[in-house]
Amino acid sequence: MMIYSEKAPAKINLTLDALHKREDGYHELEMIMTTIDLADRIDLVETDDGRIHMDSTSGLVPLDERNLAYRAASLLRERFGIRQGVRIFIHKKIPVAAGLAGGSSDAAATLRGLNRMWKLGLTLEELVKLGAELGSDVPYCVQMGTALAKGRGEILRPLPPPPPCWVVLAKPPHGISTADIFRRLDIDRISARPETEKMIEALSRSDYPAVCRLLGNVLEEVTLEMFPEVRRLKERIRRYGADGVLMSGSGPTVFGLVDRESRARRIVNALRGFCRQVFAVRMLGIPEELSARGG
Ligand code: C5P
Question: 236: which residues sit within 8 A by CB, 6+ positions away?
């Protein structure tokens, strides 16, 4: 029995800007995302019953068509007339409904893995296109690394990785619906927008203080208003000594950038009493191991 394994890393947003609301109901976005050293693992095994089976170490992920990884397999089977089935096993490490693109990354890893298993010969670009049919963050998750995402999230431009540093993550107990947060966003009343171009320049110079200073996410106003405890958590991470603090995606996970591991560990320890899911991981920017393998 051959197992095809794929790593499905989490992302954080360094910036997230919503330019306007489109006719199709989605928002025109401009966001910079980067990969961190926190990943699920997807194991794929072929079955001959022509069905998609799912299993997970986490009780929090749905094991049917509500799961994006299931839909990824289903999309490839239909599009390419695949008769074989597959068993998808998700080893969950990324917090669920957290703003870290866990579900999207699982779907992207499923696309990459099934491309190998079913010998579809699809290029990364083709997989990115298919990803866009599944969800706005899936194209980026297919590509990974550091990127500027525009449009709904499907127009991608690779960027230089952030300077090496540590990321302290704190995930409040509740999950968040991205659709709900976008619905509550009043685009005409956004008080502060991230300076996306300046962040790109800071990445190009590998300027750590500038990266920390330029972190920005327009969805913060909405989520922090709805959940004051997320605001308090953010303030706490800054007070404990992070160099820059931001909420990722639509939240509720907040992260702090820290230049040294020892300091990151101290912040994690200090946060423990206030938040159960808190950890420190390395910033990756470029996941070497993943980019080396290709399609
Ligand atoms: O594409 P996806 O299903 O991941 O998006 C989830 C929800 O987030 C959408 O239903 C939409 O309400 C909102 N969204 C948006 N503009 C985007 C991406 C997502 O309004 N560019």
Answer: 271, 274
Q: Is the pLDDT of residue 122 over 70?
A: yes
Instruction: State which fold the 3-159 domain adopts.
Output: Ribosomal Protein S5; domain 2 (3.30.230)
- Which entry of 40, 106, 137, 243 is annotated as an active-site residue? 137
For the CA of 137, the nearest atom of ligand 1? 4
Give the whole-angstrom CA distance, residue 5 versus residue 110.
9
Q: Is there a catalytic annotation at residue 171?
A: no
Site to probe by mutation for ligand 1, drawn from 75, 140, 141, 178 as the one with most ligand atoms within 8 Å of Cβ, is 178
Ligand 1 pocket member 250 (CB < 6 A): no
Domain at 166-282, CATH class: alpha beta
Q: How far is CA 159 from the centre of its chain?
A: 16
Instruction: Give the whole-angstrom CA distance, residue 82 versus residue 74.
Output: 9
Is residue 29 in contact with ligand 1, taking CB distance under 6 Å? yes
The model's pTM is 0.96
- pLDDT tens for each residue of 136-167: 999 999 999 999 999 999 999 999 999 999 99
Q: Which residue ranges make up each domain of the chain?
A: 3-159, 166-282
| Ligand-binding site membership of 251 (annotated) | no
